[in-house]
Specification:
The longest helix is centred in the last third of the chain and has 14 residues. The chain is globular, with a radius of gyration of 20 Å. The strands form 6 sheets. It has a 7-stranded antiparallel beta sheet, with no helix packed on it. A 6-stranded antiparallel beta sheet has the order 3-8-5-6-25-26, with no helix packed on it. It has a 5-stranded antiparallel beta sheet with strand order 2-9-4-7-10, with no helix packed on it. Helix content is 4%, strand content 43%. The chain has 2 domains: 122 residues, Jelly Rolls, CATH 2.60.120; 177 residues, Sandwich (Jelly Rolls). It contains 1 helix and 26 strands.
């Protein structure tokens, strides 16, 4: 195996990541038709409601009890980057921001000093199935950014750069791909400094073809996640779907596909190189900061919850939209 590959590892839940990323999860759920409440029409009997993470009949409720998803919960000290390729995610937060996004849209949220939000998956279709494919990536903030103001940003799929190569399509969510620069990330992100060479690319390679992944410009961490397809060949070694590959970012990589297409997420970035102390949804640098965070959240609830329900969703007929904390409304 070439020295450009450092290791190959199975993809769990969540995926294994490297600094500056904290973790990444891949949700693929084949939800049935929706009911009047935008939950599944099928019975919920036999599910561990409130903590349903075991795939049963092809889907999960997660922490939802009526609608699948994640009712309100806090974050501090990092960012969430949420890519929704299929289905929709309804966002609501303690800043008063809200949105519905899907079809390849990306939400970039800086938790900073503290925010509560909910992420629900409304089953909008009542006459057909509601498949969901979603990635959520946690990107750490350095100590200097742990207490920045929370920020909510939408990257609409119509605006995200797409690179069409002979045998591949690359969605450039973050970073620079062969001269094609992504949209700007959130302003206080580790990714906002181009010297950190943060990259998030969704790469689709055609069947029976060869693709060359370009090398990075500097010494950064780089992981490639093979989440859909059958198998690929790299330097004579066969790697099957549901495996991650830790790479030497200073070298380009040749990937050969067989009779099926291959789909990847690439995560890359300069390590922050600071201590990481995580307690659930809080990521700080010391245990003392974690204790202070828990005390502050208990007292302030990071501004409280301005929405009527902890699992807040928007009207079924509502299209894709973003409502920002300052009242700005963008509808797609």
């Amino acid at each position: 195996m070439s020295t450009s590959i450092k290791s190959v590892f199975p993809l769990g839940f969540p995926w294994q990541t490297q600094d500056p990323f904290l973790f990444s999860v891949y949700h693929l759920d084949h939800y049935p038709e929706g009911n009047e409440q935008m939950g599944p029409v099928d019975s919920l009997e036999g599910r561990n409601l409130g903590n349903d993470f075991i795939i049963k009949d092809g889907w999960r409720m997660y922490h939802g009890t009526t609608i699948p998803g994640f009712p309100y919960h806090p974050h501090r000290g990092f960012e969430t980057i949420t890519i929704v390729n299929k289905g929709f995610c309804d966002h609501s937060d303690s800043l008063g921001a809200a949105g519905r996004f899907g079809q390849g849209d990306v939400q970039w949220m800086t938790a900073g000093r503290g925010v509560q939000h909910s992420e629900m998956f409304p089953l909008l279709n009542q006459d057909k199935e509601n498949p969901l494919e979603l990635f959520q990536i946690w990107l750490n903030l350095p100590s200097s950014g742990k207490f920045v103001d929370p920020h909510f940003k939408m990257l609409w799929h119509e605006d995200i750069p797409i690179v069409q190569e002979e045998n591949a399509i690359i969605q450039v969510i973050a970073g620079n791909y062969r001269g094609t620069q992504s949209l700007d990330p959130a302003p206080d992100s580790w990714a906002s400094d181009k010297a950190n060479e943060v990259a998030i690319w969704n790469i689709h390679i055609e069947p029976n073809s060869t693709y060359i992944l370009p090398e990075a410009k500097s010494s950064v961490s780089r992981n490639l996640y093979f989440y859909e397809g059958s198998e690929i060949e790299i330097f004579g070694s066969t790697i099957s779907q549901n495996h991650g590959i830790e790479l030497d970012a200073s070298k380009e990589l040749e990937i050969k596909t067989s009779g099926t297409s291959a789909h990847f997420i690439l995560l890359q970035g300069k390590p922050i190189g600071e201590p990481v102390v995580q307690h659930g949804p809080f990521v700080m640098n010391t245990q003392e900061e974690i204790r202070a965070t828990m005390k502050e959240y208990g007292l302030t609830q990071f501004g409280g919850w301005p929405w009527p329900y902890p699992d807040n969703v928007h009207d079924r007929e509502r299209g894709r939209f973003a409502l920002y904390p300052d009242g700005t409304l963008i509808e797609k």
